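Why should sequence recovery work at all? Because a backbone constrains its sequence more than one might expect. Tight turns favour small or flexible residues, buried strands favour hydrophobic ones, and helices have their own preferences. The token representation captures these environments compactly. In the example below, the structure is given first.
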């Protein structure tokens, strides 16, 4: 069997966590990533009949039974993942109607999956219904998006419109917009259910005064989605306190969308 540390999905996960840390999005133990794996991807590197431990998830989600995920560990620092991947990452198989995660590899210090597993797995289930190619759920604490939730209207339409107006290509990268949840207690099934519900209509969900969730078909695409929204929030914070003399109009946003063949979220443009 091949060495799991050479698997492209493990290598990419390590690079992504490191890059997110270097962007300042994941201070201390913040942030978490989950990546859906095909059984064939896992079998190449691990004996899938050799379960190291069974860990209760604390919720039910029958539609993910039999699915495999590479998931960052709870309490682990993204800056360290590159040095201790077998300790800070784990490969899980979901069973028992979603109630149990079978650990096949990782969390070697006796640790377990991220405290935000409910939001991750519920978001995977919700997004797979919208896009069968979805593989990634990513959470982090980018400073500008977070800051924006203190000074901007938290209505999803208003928040999205502001981001779209900050950089011409935002509407191309997230035509489905951004959904915003008010402050809620993190790490709970309740915030997981609320996040998954918002994921039905957008691939980005902001948690006010906390951070953001992004989803996508691969790690690069999902990173790029969050990166683009964070850049727009940065521009917003640079200009919000200055007299605004010009902006991107709705007519211009329609022109960009038509030119790039994307459909903006229904009702978000005038
Ligand atoms: O501790 O970011 O939301 C990881 C988190 C919790
Ligand atoms: Zn967080």
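From this structural description, the recovered sequence reads:
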């Amino acid at each position: 069997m091949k060495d799991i540390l050479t698997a492209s999905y493990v290598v990419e996960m390590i690079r992504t966590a490191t890059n997110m840390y270097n962007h300042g999005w994941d201070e201390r133990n913040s942030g978490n990533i989950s990546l859906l794996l095909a059984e064939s991807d896992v079998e190449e590197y691990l004996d899938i009949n050799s379960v190291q431990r069974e860990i209760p998830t604390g919720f039910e989600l029958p539609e993910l039974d039999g699915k495999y995920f590479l998931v960052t560990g709870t309490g682990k620092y993204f800056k360290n993942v590159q040095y201790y991947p077998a300790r800070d990452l784990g490969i899980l198989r979901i069973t028992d109607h979603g109630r149990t995660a079978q650990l096949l590899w990782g969390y070697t210090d006796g640790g377990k999956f991220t405290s935000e597993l409910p939001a991750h797995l519920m978001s995977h289930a919700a997004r797979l219904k919208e896009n069968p190619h979805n593989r990634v759920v990513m959470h982090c604490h980018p400073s500008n998006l977070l800051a924006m939730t203190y000074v901007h209207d938290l209505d999803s339409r208003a928040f999205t419109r502001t981001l779209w107006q900050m950089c011409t290509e935002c509407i191309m990268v997230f035509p489905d917009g951004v959904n915003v949840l008010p402050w809620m207690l993190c790490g709970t099934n309740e915030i997981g259910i609320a996040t998954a519900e918002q994921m039905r209509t957008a691939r980005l969900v902001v948690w006010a005064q906390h951070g953001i969730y992004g989803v996508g078909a691969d790690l690069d695409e999902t990173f790029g989605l969050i990166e683009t929204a964070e850049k727009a929030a940065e521009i917003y914070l640079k200009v919000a306190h200055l007299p605004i003399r010009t902006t991107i109009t709705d007519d211009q946003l329609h022109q960009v969308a038509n030119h790039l063949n994307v459909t903006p979220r229904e009702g978000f443009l005038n």
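A few observations help interpret the result. The chain has ten helices and nine strands.
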